Amino acid sequence: MPYAKIIGSGGYLPPRVVSNDDLAADLATRQIQTSHSWIVERTGIHQRHLADPGVTTSQLATHAARAAMDMAGVTADDIDLIIVATSTPDFVFPSTACLVQAQLGAKGGAAFDVQAVCSGFVYALTTADAFIQAGRAKTALVIGAEVFSSILDWNDRSTCVLFGDGAGAVVLQASDEPGILAAQLNADGSQMKILCAAGNVAHGEVVGDPFLRMDGQAVFKLAVTSLTKSAQDVCEQAGMEVADVDWLVPHQANVRIINFLGRRLSVPDDKVIVTVDKHANTSAASVPLALDVALRDGRIKKGDTVLMQGVGGGFTWGSVLARM
Ligand code: ACO
């Protein structure tokens, strides 16, 4: 059975950078008070990239995919599977993955979306790994992409300061060398209310509440507990100790969650990739964006082991352990 190996990564952030001060000034025009110091102290976020109106998830995803394909040295003709993890698809259908396929000029392979919110990328990567191990695909594009700004209530200061837009991608290819070493996915649907955007369009009208709502403290507790156990379980599956993993690339929700997790797992700070300060929380895009930053700046090198972790609405969580 072949292994599935990450052979390239790419990221894309929309060019408009909004600092905490910019955001605070904008919210103040609507009598909503926030500050750089509140946001940094509670979340570690300094700025976020926001897509201009009209910019879509598939466009961000296609930029990131092209960068990953360039690094991998593959062309659109090589891609026989595209999976996009997103909670902000362009349309109800077709899937964002089909739109990306068309924008890349790829044809004929499978293309579909997965929806596991901020765990979406680890869900998509695990799915692509299973396709490759089963011999059903050879070269897969796995993308996390979001225009999360489109589902934020900009009058709710407790959520709108936390998120940003962006996309990250990897090319996963069948290989004789070990790549993905272990993976584990989880969900607990009974916790849906702590983090949801529980609206939809039916009969041409918005039904329910289309904006993201969150019980921040409940999310914090569940995120730390579930990710700690998931990290231990996935490493055990691979016959490793968490302490022996070279790099931790966790979902970038909040620097306090990341620090707490690192301490619980006894992973030193300099082995944890953090981008939440610059990107904010880009949901399904956060893990591949962080991975791409650390591959391109040379911290993560060929042969290193990388533990990627996602956690988010559903409630969902999961981990993928990979050798680069
Ligand atoms: N600016 C200023 N004040 C604010 C803001 C803001 N942006 N947002 C909330 N406040 C106020 C509240 O109104 C409240 O005021 P009050 O005491 O007068 O009532 C006060 O700050 C404290 O509010 P809390 O909600 O209790 O703040 P908390 O310390 O819990 O911090 C936070 C909120 C940062 C969301 C925290 O709960 C957290 O880190 N949660 C983790 C969840 C998370 O990061 N989610 C990201 C998305 S989920 C995911 O990706 C998995």
UniProtKB/TrEMBL annotation:
Recorded superkingdom: Bacteria
Pathway membership: Lipid metabolism; fatty acid biosynthesis
GO MF terms, alphabetically ordered: 3-oxoacyl-[acyl-carrier-protein] synthase activity; beta-ketoacyl-acyl-carrier-protein synthase III activity
Beta-ketoacyl-[acyl-carrier-protein] synthase III C-terminal domain span: 235-323
Pfam families listed in its UniProt record: ACP_syn_III (PF08545), ACP_syn_III_C (PF08541)
Keywords: Acyltransferase, Cytoplasm, Fatty acid biosynthesis, Fatty acid metabolism, Lipid biosynthesis, Lipid metabolism, Multifunctional enzyme, Transferase
Annotated ranges, domain Beta-ketoacyl-[acyl-carrier-protein] synthase III N-terminal: 112-189
Gene Ontology CC entries for this record: cytoplasm
Enzyme class: transferase
Protein's GO biological process: fatty acid biosynthetic process
Catalysed conversion reaction: malonyl-[ACP] + acetyl-CoA + H(+) = 3-oxobutanoyl-[ACP] + CO2 + CoA
Active-site residues, record numbering mapped to chain: 118, 251, 281
Record EC number: 2.3.1.180
InterPro entries: ACP_syn_III_C, ACP_syn_III_N, FabH, Thiolase-like
Locations listed in the record: Cytoplasm
Domain notes: The last Arg residue of the ACP-binding site is essential for the weak association between ACP/AcpP and FabH.
Family: Belongs to the thiolase-like superfamily. FabH family.
Subunit structure: Homodimer.
Primary role: Catalyzes the condensation reaction of fatty acid synthesis by the addition to an acyl acceptor of two carbons from malonyl-ACP. Catalyzes the first condensation reaction which initiates fatty acid synthesis and may therefore play a role in governing the total rate of fatty acid production. Possesses both acetoacetyl-ACP synthase and acetyl transacylase activities. Its substrate specificity determines the biosynthesis of branched-chain and/or straight-chain of fatty acids.
Name of the protein: Beta-ketoacyl-[acyl-carrier-protein] synthase III
